[in-house]
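Q: I have three molecules that I believe assemble together. Could you output structure tokens for the complex as a whole instead of separate predictions?
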Amino acid sequence: MAGLKLDGLRKRFGNNEILKGVDLALADGEMLVIVGASGCGKSTLLRIVAGLETPSAGRVLIDGRDVTGLDPSARDIAMVFQNYALYPHMSVFENMAYALKIRGLPRSEIRAKVDAASALLGLEALLERKPRQLSGGQRQRVAMGRAIVRAPKLFLFDEPLSNLDAKLRVQMRGEIRRLQRRLKVTSLYVTHDQVEAMTLGDRLLVMHQGVPAQLATPTEVFERPADTYVAGFIGSPAMNLLPGTLGRDGTSVRVADADVALGAWRFDRPDGHRVVLGIRPEHVVLDALGMTWPVEVVELLGSEMLVHAGRPGGASLTLKIANGAPVGDAIRVSFPAAHIHVFDEATGLRIEPALASSRVREAGSRADAGA
Amino acid sequence: MERRTLFPGRVLPALLILPQLVLTGVFFLWPAIQAIKSSLEREDAFGTSTEFVGLDNFVDLFGDPLYLAAIGRTLVFCACVTGIAMGVALGLAVLADTEIRGRAFYRTMLIWPYAVAPAMAAVLWVLMFHPQIGLVGAWLNRIGIAWDYKLDGTQAMGLVILAAAWKQVSYNFIFFLAGLQAIPKTIIEAARIDGARGVRRFRTIVLPLLMPTVYFLLVVDLVYAAFDTFATVYAVNGGGPGQSTQTLVLKVYLDGVVNANVGSSSAQSVVLMAGVIVLCALQFRFLGRKAAA
Amino acid sequence: MRRRMPPLIPHAVLILAILLFALPIWIAVAGSTQDSAAIARGEVSLVPRLSGLGVYRDVLVNGSAGAGPVWRSLLVSAAMALAIAFGKIALSLPSAYAVTFFRFPFRMTAFWLIFLTLMLPVEVRLIPTFQVMASLDLINSFTGLTIPLVASATATLLFRQTFLAVPDELVEAARMDGAGPLRFLRDILIPVSGANIAALFVILFVYGWNQYLWPLLVATDPKLDTVVISIVKMVGVDTATEWNKVMATAVLALVPPVAVVLLMQRWFVKGLTEGDK
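A: Yes, here they are, computed for all three components at once.
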């Protein structure tokens, strides 16, 4: 049982800086999912923790011990690879036993540990098979078994489900989660799939261009994305992001020729400040009195449908509404204030609102702090 | 090309590579340097002293009509062997590729000449074309064609070309068949839907995709024809009759070993080295092309 | 849709080609069982005579005019082919491993030095290599016959190609499991490359068995005659060539390399075409 701590990790390949300073701390037994588009540095980060890459700067601490310069085998970690990386010439048993054999464990002990791990994963009947005789899901399980059998301090997962078909992926996702909960091993899980990230992680780290964009629980990341990148990346279909300007003393946003009221919220920026208004497709509501948007395409999803609307000038809007809702050439919609996100257009960062009525009190407390 | 994952350490890899480096140094590089050195020297008649003569050996060499004739002969020989070996192999591979059934059988039945030594190829063809005992040779004489490769230089050349090409067909066949099978079926199907048929489909679709293999085999066959066929030519007639089948490699051996003219033989070696380097450079370009394709 | 060309024609052409390719061998097989004098008169038949099979025993034990007993030269050939095949694998596997899986000073220099030997076939450096062997006192020795042929770049390049194709994740998994470089070589890399090693063995065995120029030059002692050398000597005897014995020897000389190629055909073809020579 051990925690993991990353301290100012940087990695550069030639002139290309892949990681631009990452700090991170995982609690004992926590599962943290690193998610991001390809090239964001998530795999490099994982490989540095594994010891397969050396950081240009910074430290890796496992269980409080600095392992930055250590060989992968000396870190007491296990890794599950995207393509499983099973040894093709060894049976399932031999694959799982290999690390233990290298450590010189007695044969009986190896047998016992492999048996225990294979029972956990339902691999008992497959122990004598070679990897090529296994299905994708079974290979995935063997790869997990190989990691479990060593009882490491840290599990590393490098997109372990991306080679599986959709159905199997859902099933294995659940299994990994159950297993991790049960074994309570600190885990770092890298994926580009946001659904995996949301369902698996105790916390998420969203990476963007070598920098952590947000580190928070899945709920937090979904409900309060830290910037426009996270807002657009997490959630499907992606959040609508509409450029606009603040008005009415920070209580409304002017978007596409209409004023969107922000209800009880007030955003502490001068009027005319350029912002980006964010609202998820499922939160947009049809409203006979709302703004008018010409409809471009309607996609049926079954019980729901996606409506893509666009305005001359390029602004576009996606709605997810119940199937059968009346949609003609144009729709009228409104944005409920409770679901509106506001970001600074220049920095992309989320602007935290204050309750409009608490304006005075907040101003007072700021004055206190200044005094 | 480089691997992403490496092992740390410097002593172990050095120890692992050392044996091969030592052997390479002693048996390849050192002799090659010696060859260059003696190509610039000349021994006196008694072999007691050598003197540095600069490029004289090369000047003599390229002024020698016999050597120039050998160059021409070697070029003709290489071109014929390569052309026949590749042409026949490509034709057979295309035929074997059209029908899935029997492909493995044909490959097996055509693969074995790969194992035949160049010298053995000569022996087998002599047994077939010997003017008295050979099945074909004796028959040619019976029907009134004066066949004797021991007397007729052109016939001798023809025989060594056929023997050398015969052996190389199987190697080429293996590569052409593999190359044809590597062409995605969907491309051929797309061409069929586009209406390309038969020869046209082969010329416009298959052949361009097969070009990397063609380039690769071209270089391999040229190297084979230039060097490995020493045994074939030597075993048929020893370069004769006269000098009619004396290729460059044969001349290196005859001048150096039989006539003990080390200076000239070394100069010839250096010329051949230059030839191999050119061929290797070509192969490098073609292989680069292959990687890109 | 128009039909493709009828399959009978390709099959017919291929079978004809197979027969033509096999003809020289068949002449040797059939001829070996016939009477030497009849062959000399040009009356070789394509039908083997079972009663003539004794010639094989005869050449194995007694040899023929111009060369010693064939069992001996077969033994020399086999020893030479095996020594070259195993020697090359033993030499080039570690060196290919070193250049692909490590970074060390002068790595590329070392690699290019080895690569350079591709451009120096034995025919090109004949006399100086002979002189080196002479100065090492290795003329007319089995060592002299094999050692200079053991160091060559082809095997190293082929192994390097194979090793480069091994997925990185496999190496990483092994490192995570705690395998050091030698352990990885033994437990993972060599077993994984088994098919390629087998293919290379075939290529090298054939290469070793088929050597002619180098043995001709460096081993003049008849005791070191390979079977290829022996048979050329037999053919070279001008008068009273015992043709049936020559043919029998030719068949005997062909059986081992052809058998190796055919028996290991699957690996051989795969290794040959995937590794590019």
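A: One point stands out. The CA atoms of residues 108 and 257 of chain C lie 35 Å apart.
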